[in-house]
Specification:
The structure holds 2 protein chains of 2 kinds. By secondary structure, chain A is an all-alpha fold. Chain A has a single domain, classed as Up-down Bundle (Formate dehydrogenase/DMSO reductase fold). In chain A, about 70% of the residues lie in helices and about 0% in strands. In chain A, α2 packs antiparallel against α15 and α9 packs antiparallel against α10. The longest helix of chain A has about 35 residues. By secondary structure, chain B is of the alpha+beta class. Chain B has 2 domains: about 90 residues, Alpha-Beta Plaits (2-Layer Sandwich), CATH 3.30.70; about 70 residues. In chain B, strands 2-5-1-6 form a 4-stranded antiparallel sheet. A two-stranded antiparallel ribbon of chain B has the order 3-4. In chain B, α1 runs antiparallel to α5 and α3 runs antiparallel to α4. The N and C termini of chain B lie close together (about 5 Å). Classes of the chains: A mainly alpha, B alpha+beta. Chains A and B meet through α1, α6, α7, α8 and α16 of A and β2, α2, α3 and α4 of B.
Chain lengths: ~450, ~180
């Protein structure tokens, strides 16, 4: 059993036994859903279905229904894509990177953060697919033998790298998540009383029995998958940034993009985790497992990555002047003072100033303040992508072609719809899946639980 | 042939571990331990060897790396060399830098999925397979030591019973299984 210093705050509050952990996580699944769940699910479903309707209309009519024009070929669609991929970065970062660093506080949040990741990447993947216009030929992005002669996809293109990066990221995250879920499904299966639930969880748990050898393999698989997923997390958003960085558009053609995008992604991902978990812990009565200390740790991550993002913004601005390239300099001047100044300064305020408030201990331990900032960061990070994409292309080399982007109602409908669908998935997850890695949490109960830390023989034992 | 199996149930992982040590040092062979979470340090006591899945992951990764390299060499250099912006793909080496992202992704894809599939197959945990834990509480807060009499010829059942009593179990169960 691992020991830790007594002055370190316990990760599990109260006097919990192993059985209490099982009870606390399984009860919301076994009980009837509260009325609030149905209300939220209904709202999310309606918004999601509206989004599906917009997508169907778009597929039937063509992407001309978006507010794009011949100067601005990418706008809300790719903004939303990058925004969702970014959000999808926190889950695997928490479960993989924090596993490698042996950060035990991850255990309370990794399950739901990973679920968030998977659903966010679903939403992200939707945008490039519908951007094709002809969704049914989506498989053309794969190098499949075909009847068009020796025609292959272009492996020199960052857009194709993205296909591989996103699909690898999605499927590996899904597998990582599911392997962790199997033992927890087994716990629910062994408690289930209703025959249908028992059957369902029996299938989902793959017949897991908890043998010593299986646990030995489980730990190795988790560790190796974490080792594989860690560079994957960094590579995915680096590759997303290559979509822009390898082009020749002033404002996009920037070597700083990969680290800047990765930090931005972690920043926005953690903000979304905070938004979701602060509500979930309350609604599902998990305050003993996800408490102020966890929130504080996440706020520190937000503060660090937010500071890196802020540094990147300022570096970018400085280099655009220092490079002496007038097109580059204009692109940035135009961002800050041109017709899109409001988007630029919203981004600056939300992403540069707000995380700096987390230096104050009282604020980063305040749940209300954290919730507020998490929303601010989500908005700011959407604006970041909008600023990068739209302001760089709306004024190109020929002033006659200068233009503005106005979103159509389909642009807005598809975006809002993905938020609805995301919450449909997340609410279903919260209702039927163990939202806490309950068996993993049991392993830290003796090392980091409050009752054990306070017992007089905590330091004498063993 | 029916064989006799003893299941000793504990309510604490550390008590089970101390008990297992005691049993093993007295020559008892422990066939299996069932627990709701991994008990760190139990494997060497009951003689569970460390898994070689890590090596398999490496081999799957190597397969992915090779496939990606050969694939892209064939698509982009041999079968249809593309000339992009006056920079044709004459040799693999000329163009390798552009192939690194996909090579990396494909390596990870093969390593992760290969290992996950092997893990499920080796465990024999797949959809539809029935659970085999002796008591449903072993996925909650109970820990079980399984002792098969067929694997313990040197120690008598009475001696095992006596040793088990000293380990502080909470419940004991004896079953005949075919």
């Amino acid at each position: 059993m691992q020991k830790e210093a007594v002055i370190r705050e316990p990760l599990i509050l109260g006097h919990k036994s192993y059985h209490d952990v099982t009870e606390d996580v399984c009860r919301p699944i076994e009980d009837k859903a509260p009325r609030m769940w149905y209300i939220l699910f209904g709202i999310a479903l309606i918004i999601g279905l509206y989004g599906v309707g917009c997508i169907l209309y778009l597929l039937g009519t063509g992407i001309g229904v978006w507010g794009l024009n011949k100067t601005i070929g990418w706008a809300w669609d790719i903004t939303n894509f990058v925004w969702w991929v970014g959000i999808g970065h926190a889950g695997t970062l928490i479960s993989a990177v924090l596993l490698l660093f042996r950060q035990k506080w991850r255990m309370a949040i990794n399950r739901s953060a990973e679920a968030m990741t998977i659903f966010a990447v679903f939403m992200a993947g939707l945008f490039p697919l519908i951007h094709m216009g002809r969704l049914w030929v989506g498989y053309w992005v794969l190098p499949l033998p075909n009847q068009f002669g020796s025609l292959w996809v272009n492996f020199n293109s960052p857009l194709l790298w993205d296909v591989f990066a996103i699909s690898t990221y999605l499927s590996v995250s899904l597998v990582f998540w599911y392997i962790g879920l199997i033992p927890d499904f087994a716990t629910i299966r062994d408690r289930a009383k209703k025959p249908v639930a028992k059957k369902m969880y029996s299938i989902l748990s793959f017949g897991w029995s908890g043998r010593a050898k299986h646990w030995n393999r489980f730990e190795t698989v988790s560790l190796v998958l974490a080792g594989l997923a860690t560079p994957l997390v960094f590579s995915v958003h680096s590759i997303v940034s290559f979509d822009f960085a390898t082009s020749v558009i002033p404002g996009w053609h920037t070597t700083i993009f990969p680290p800047y995008f990765v930090c931005g992604a972690v920043f926005s991902g953690f903000a979304m985790v905070q938004t979701l978990l602060l509500v979930m812990r309350k609604a599902m009565g998990l305050e003993a497992y996800i408490h102020t200390k966890h929130v504080e740790y996440m706020n520190i991550v937000i503060m660090v990555t937010g500071s890196i993002v802020g540094t990147a913004y300022i570096t970018e601005l400085f280099i655009s002047w220092y490079s002496g390239v007038e097109y580059e300099a204009y692109a940035f001047l135009n961002r800050a003072t041109g017709p899109y100044w409001w988007a630029y300064w919203s981004m600056m305020t939300c992403n540069v100033i707000s995380p700096q408030l987390m230096w104050i201990r009282k604020l980063r331990r305040s749940l209300m303040f954290t919730f507020f900032i998490s929303i601010v960061v989500n908005i700011g990070m959407w604006f970041e992508r909008y600023v990068i994409i739209v302001t760089s292309i709306h004024r190109d080399y020929v002033p006659a072609a200068w233009s503005m982007h106005y979103p159509s109602h389909i642009d807005i409908g598809v975006y809002i719809g993905t938020i609805g669908l995301f919450f449909v998935f997340f609410l279903l997850f919260a209702r039927y899946f163990p939202v806490l890695a309950l068996n993993e949490v049991k392993t830290i109960l003796k090392g980091s639980g409050q009752s054990y830390k306070e017992s007089p023989d905590y330091h004498k034992h063993h | 042939m029916a064989e006799k199996v003893i299941y000793a149930m504990y309510d604490d992982d550390d008590v089970l571990k101390d008990g297992a040590k005691k049993l093993v040092s007295n020559g008892v062979k422990i066939s299996e331990v069932f627990s709701p979470f991994p008990i760190h340090g139990i494997d060497p006591i009951i003689g569970v060897k460390n898994t070689r899945l890590g090596i398999m992951a490496f081999l799957y990764g190597l397969t992915g790396l090779t496939l990606a390299t050969y694939g892209m060499r064939f698509f982009m250099v041999v079968d249809w060399p593309m000339n992009i912006g006056g920079k044709p793909n004459f040799t693999y080496l000329d163009n390798m830098l552009a192939f690194i992202p996909v090579t990396f992704e494909f390596t990870v894809l093969c390593a992760a999925h290969g290992m996950a599939i092997t893990y499920l197959l080796r465990n024999k945990t797949l959809p539809g397979i029935p659970a085999q834990n002796p008591d449903p509480r072993t996925t909650d807060d109970r820990f079980v030591i399984e002792i098969r009499m067929s694997e313990n010829h040197k120690v008598s059942e009475e001696a095992i019973d006596k040793l088990l009593t000293e380990t502080g179990y909470v419940e004991i169960d004896k079953k005949e299984i075919k």
